[in-house]
Amino acid sequence: MRLRTMLMTLAALGLLATPRPASAKPRVTMKIATLAPEGSTWMNLMHELDDRVREATGEEAGFRFYPGGVQGDEKLVLRKMRSGQLHGGGFTGNGLGVIAPELRVLEAPFLFTDEGELDAVHDAFDEEFSALVESRGYVLLGWAEVGFVHVFTREPVRRLADFRDVRMWLWEGDPLPELFFREAGITPVPLPITDVYTSLQTGLIDGVYCSPYACVVLQWHTRVGAMSATPISHAIGAVVVTRKQFEKISAESREKIRGIASDIFTRLKSASRDENRRAVEDIRAAGITVVQADEDAVEEFLAIGARSADLGTASLFPAELLGRVRARILAHREAASAPEE
Q: How many Å from the N-terminal Cα to the C-terminal Cα in the chain?
């Protein structure tokens, strides 16, 4: 079952909200595509963003959203943005990496161990990352993190040798996990995300990686038996619009939009983290085993992750940037472990 078919089925069952009625057209409309389905927390907050922006700008600016992947995958959405058919998208790291490969430093394998470290890096680097995106002709409206990424497999994986026996999915065209698999000696099966469910059904693959919430929403958890306790990465997401369209809006209204977006995306981050925590409970309830890798295997995975991140400096992010991010994480860990005075 492809993603779009699944979403249509959910809609038919009444599990997704019906589309919102059309409203008056603002002077400047930003057309935004996303894989998120109508009725999801993500889309509910995006509609709130639209309502508040329209009101705050006196209908000078507003959004039109295309949910559920109806505009195609992320790379097709980017092509449509370049041609002017669309003005923005909700992207995962795969799409963001096309705009600014440097952002993939945030998804380096085994870089973060908790949300506090992630927040510390965003606090230190978000201004720099936003400027980087703008230099490529886009505006980053806000981060919409996907969450910590775990490995889901039919059989438990406790050591690297187990991992090499798994027919692992690779998101087709995504260079960062490809580096990790190559360094680990794993030959993955490249597929578009829309083919994953069917491939799990047919046995073409028997391992995937994603956030717990994504695993449940996409129903992949119905085709696996185990989840890694230790996440292998943290997946980023963001809403990006073309600078050309954004700058059609007056400076005063653009400032209002940024302020509203800051509130919306702060709440979205909190909601995403809550949904991932609840999804882990759903995964356990479904009978999926949460597997802790052997201690020596964890160390081996960490070393492979560090080496694959270093390899990423050749084509994705500068070594200097990776070094600064690692230093910020280390400083946060030291501060967190320091005894209170």
A: 57
Contacts of 48 (CB under 8 A, 6+ apart): 264
Contact 294, 159 (CB under 8 A): yes
Closest CA to 218 of 195, 191, 190, 189: 195
Token pair for residue 337? 């472990």
Query: Which has the closest alpha carbon to 85: 71, 98, 70, 73?
Result: 71
User: How is residue 132 written in tokens?
Assistant: 């980087």
Which region holds residue 265: left if phi is over 0, alpha if psi is between -120 and 50, else beta? alpha
Asked if residues 82 and 48 have their Cβ atoms less than 8 Å apart, the reply is no
**φ and ψ of 146, to 5 deg:** -85, -40
Nearest to 309 by CA among 199, 182, 144: 182
pLDDT tens-digit profile of 246-275? Answer: 999 999 999 999 999 999 999 999 999 999
pTM above 0.90, yes or no: no
* Burial category of 36 from C-beta neighbours within 10 Å (exposed 0-12, middle 13-18, buried 19 and up): buried
CA-wise closest residue to 63 among 31, 86, 35, 34: 31
Contacts 24+ apart (CB under 8 A), 324-328: 324/125, 325/105, 325/106, 325/108, 325/111, 325/121, 325/125, 326/111, 328/120, 328/121, 328/124, 328/125
pLDDT tens readout for residues 65-100? 999 899 998 999 999 999 999 999 999 999 999 999
- Answer for the pair 62, 50: CB distance below 8 angstroms, yes or no: yes
